[in-house]
Model the fold of this input.
Amino acid sequence: MTGFVALRYDLSQLIGSGHLRRMMSVGMELDNRQIPYRFVGTAASAALFNEFNIPTDRTIQIDANEGEADWLSKAPRFTHVIVDVCHEHRSNAGELVRDIKKAGTHRVAVIDSIAPDHFQEKIDGIPELVVTPYLNADLFRPAPSAQIWLHGSKYSLLDHEFRRRRLNLTDPQRKLENNLLICCGGSDPENLTELILNQLIQQNALPVRTTVVVGNLFSSNRKKSLQTLVERTELNIDLADGKNGIGHFLEKCTFVIARVGLISYEAACLGKTMILILDQTRYEPYLRGFESSTLAKVFFMDQPDDKRSFEQFLNSLADREKVTRYSKFNQVGFNAVDGLGISRFLNRFLKN
Done:
């Protein structure tokens, strides 16, 4: 191909920076293939370009009064557009894709979300490809009208570093020192990080080294509050900056407590036991599938019984034997996600 690829994403305090991070991973693979591209998003993401080492000449910012056709008219010439805007706070992803299709002859691929936030195309704006990169995705949505539908955990769109780290695990089941990683996303709108830390610190007994990832969209007040909590305890808890990704922290940990998100697949790729939490039951059928496949344990924080069970789980971390049990290698996750999803996706999308 001779044209450019547009990486169209959403980012906000509500949804965090995961969509941009996923596009950064796609961009790295495009770099490997020497294919030019541009990041395309609203001004809300501009503040993160320096933090994520994204050159401004590789970005196009969409003004509030601009439509999809407006940014497409800007140089360079795009031949392919990858759209990552499906989430619970955007109901018009179908209209957005329709506008892109009407603006030219671009080939369009959509990165899907989980039902009920899955991509729903318009009859006059059907993309060439939809990728639903989640475990058993075909069970939770009807097939889209796109020419190509890729679905399942083998299409998990992970940064290439996870494939590299996975290959470096010469003995995946080697014994590591018990190490807990807590990561509730780039923005953590429900402040689950502080809730978990408070519960652990109240026990004053935690026989495991603990690393807490501070999201890149955490406010300065949120960061100060977490720092104060950690300074007031003698427990072995470290705060870690997540701006350069979490691959290093995942590789060193033995189990993970995380807010549901891309980290679910990043941890699986490295064989880590996962305890996943979510503030709502919006994706409950899908996430119960995680449990039934033994990929992860899931707690829904808006359900009183689940919230109590999660608190009991946190209390159990004072028991060294239980911590060792939680730290077992996750063979199911390791088998489900191999880190080649982006390569598979681009092979299909850029083929013609």
